[in-house]
Amino acid sequence: METVELKVEMVGIHEKRLRKCLSKLRGIEKVEVDAYSQKVVVTTATGYLHRNKLLKAIKRGGLKADFWSPQNELLSAYASASYGSLIRFNNFNF
Prior knowledge:
The chain is an alpha+beta fold and 94 residues long. The chain has three helices and four strands; from the N terminus they run βαββαβα.
């Protein structure tokens, strides 16, 4: 069993398109999608699936994708913290 983490730019209905692209590949057991952080975790049943085949299938479906890295964790945390501070000052009048 192997897990592959991907960063996929998703907006709205793209989750359905993503699942359709990945369903065409053999050996995929489970697909977990976190649309908020744009993270997709694919678990294989057979033990090994080439990572580039996953990436190629997603790109063929018209979505932008890349492998997940620890830097993405930091960027998503920073973006959510910055967005939260913007919301707090939204009602401020000059």
